[in-house]
Amino acid sequence: MMSAHGTDPIQEQTFILVTGANSGLGFSICCRLADEFLSAHQQPHQSLTVIFTTRSSKKGHDTLTRLQHHLRTTAPTNTTRVTFVPENVDLGNLLSVRALSRRLNNTYPKLDAVVLNAGIGGWTALDWPAAIWGVLTDTVHQVTWPTYKIAPAGMLTDPQTTDQEPCLGSVFCANVFGHYMLAHNVMPLLRRSGGRVVWVSSLEATVKMFDIDDLQGLRTPAPYESSKALTDLLALTADLPSAAPWVRSFCSTPDTSEGEQNTQPNMYLSHPGVCGSGILPLSWPLFYAMLAAFYFARILGSPWHTVSTYMGACAPVWLALSSQAVLDSAESVYRQHGGGRVKWGSASTVVGKNSSASTETDGWGHGGVVGPAVVDDDRWRRRKRGAADLTAEERQEFEELGRKCWQGMEELRIQWDELLDVAERTSKS
C-alpha cells in the first residue's frame, strides 16, 4: 500500500539495531543516530526506530528514560519521529542471542543496519608503574595503543547448554561470536532492506595480536585485542572472492534462493577513536585524569582522541545512516587503486572538529591499497610508531588470514547451531 506521499510507508521508516547501549559509546550512538537522522530527514513522514540492547530490563528502562530525555532536549518538536525500543540480550549467552533474534524477526519488517557495539575488555588490572611511566614519557602512543593493561588468558563463558560442549571464550563470545550469531540470525530482516552490518572495532586491533590457531583468543594475554583483530579481518575481507563461500553461508537464510544472493548486506568496519567509555573500570579521579591525558594527546597532534563518547559515535553512525552512494564514493578512491573496504574511525582535530577518517591497519594499510597512502588526509595524518607502507605480500597474507577466519567462524557457527538445536529440543521434551 502506498502512503499519501506516493511512497511505500515501510521505505520511509528506518530500523536500526544497536547492541550494548546502556552507557558509554552505545548510548551515544543511539543519541547521535536520532540527532543526525532528524537533521538529514526533514519530511514529517520519515521516521527512525532505534532498537537498543542492554543486559537487563532495569538497565533497558533506565536507558530508555535517558534517551527520551535526550530527544526531548535536542528535538522537542520531532519526538514522534524517533522511537527507542529496549531489548535484553546477553551476548555471552547464545540462547539469549537466539531469543532476541526470534523476537526481532517476529516484530519488525526489516533492519536497515545493525551496529555491533557491545563488548567487554576482560582486563583485571593495570601495570601501574608501566602505565605511569609510559604516559609521562610517551604520552600520545601510550594513551592510544597502551601496553599496560592486564588480562588473564583462558576466560570462558558459563556453560551454554550442558557440560558436554566445547569451550567458548568469554571475551571472544561477547565481542565477536555473539554478534556473529545475532547478525546471521537476523539476516532475513537485513536482506529485505539491503541492510548493513556495522562492526565496532578498536584502534588497538592488530593482526600481530591474533593467532588463527587460537581463533577464540584463549591462549593469549590480550584477548580483547585478539577479538578486535578478528573483527577487522572479518569485516575487511567480507567482500573478497576468497572469502565468498563462507560469507554466502553466513548471509544465507532458510528461504534464500540462488537469485537472492545479491541482497547480501554490506559489512563495514568502524572504531570510536579514543574516548572516555567505561570499558576500563576506573575510579572517578582516575577517569578524569585519563580524560585530561586524552585532551593532552589531542593537543600534541593525535587525530584519534575524540574524548567524548558522542564524538566517538561519529564513524559508526555515519556508516549506519549514510546513503549507499555516499559510502561508495568515500571508498571509491581506495578501490580505484586496487584496494577495498576501509576501516573508518572517529577522528578529531585539535579544536574538536569531528569526522570519519580512514585508519591505517596492520596488514591492510589504508583501504587495502599497496604502497603509500593515496588520499592526502591519510598521508599527512599522524601514524602509529613503526607503521610502514603496505606491501603486496602483506596484503596477500591478510586476505588469506581473512579467508581462514571466515571459514573458522562459519564452522563454529554451524557447530553451535546444532548444539543449540539439541538443547532447545531437549528442554521442550
Automatic annotation (TrEMBL):
Enzyme Commission no: 1.1.1.270
Any one GO cellular component localisation term in the record: lipid droplet
InterPro entries (alphabetical): Ergosterol_Biosynth_ERG27, NAD(P)-bd_dom_sf, SDR_fam
Enzyme type, top EC level: oxidoreductase
Domain of life of the organism encoding this protein: Eukaryota
SUPFAM superfamilies registered for this protein in UniProt: NAD(P)-binding Rossmann-fold domains
GO molecular function: 3-beta-hydroxysteroid 3-dehydrogenase (NADP+) activity
Keywords on record: Lipid biosynthesis, Lipid metabolism, NADP, Oxidoreductase, Steroid biosynthesis
Pathways involved: Steroid biosynthesis; zymosterol biosynthesis; zymosterol from lanosterol: step 5/6
Keyword Lipid metabolism: yes
BP terms from Gene Ontology: ergosterol biosynthetic process
UniProt similarity note: Belongs to the short-chain dehydrogenases/reductases (SDR) family. ERG27 subfamily.
The protein, known as: 3beta-hydroxysteroid 3-dehydrogenase
Organism from which the protein derives: Aspergillus avenaceus
Taxonomic classification: Eukaryota, Fungi, Dikarya, Ascomycota, Pezizomycotina
